[in-house]
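Cross-check.
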Amino acid sequence: MIFILTLLGCTPDKSADSAEPPSKPVLAEIRLLDAIQGDTMGNVTLTSILDTQTTNEQGVATILVDEEESITIEASAPGYVPHHLELYSGRVNYSAVSLMASQSAAEQIFGFLSLTPDTTKGIIIVALDNPDLTPAVGAQASIDVDSDNSFILTSIAPEFGNEVKPNAGGFVAFPNVTAGTVNIQVTSPSDSTCIQHPAGATESATIEVLSGIVHVVFFTCSP
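Predicted model, tokenized:
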């Protein structure tokens, strides 16, 4: 018996050598602002598959997420549409700033554009920012499933379109998106390249759209 155990003990464990190392968590610092007023949002519950945190009075919470993969952070607060923050982690800690729309604000925007909310569908917000969080003017976004016409939010009012303009918010919104897998394609401005924030693919992302959820997909456009 000792002889057999010795032989077994000397046999290399190739499966252990070939196994990929487990992913390590990184920290994502999330700051949330009201989409219309711009106020910081405290007491928002953030949930990832690894952690749950609540934003402080400055609208900030730091939450554990997986490294080097697509991650979703759920954000929920009374009176607000549920939001899913769609990011792509790298190997280091990172931060992101997101707007959250209240139920009343969403209804007002839909009404202004003569859109009817469909509770069986979702909403995609493609956030297109420069590294300093200013809007990436000239960036465009499109999706590969059915939705109502995309729109942007200018300093005056929402208007239909899929390109970030001067004096407008740094995002393109897609209302009433069919639930399921959605591929997002971004066209970068002429002087920069957009990647899914902070370490994802260039000019593209894939997410799972859920009914009644606002999905915020973050892109950073750098020279």
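The CA atoms of residues 5 and 11 lie 10 Å apart. The first strand starts at residue 25 and ends at 34. Passed to J.P. for a second look.
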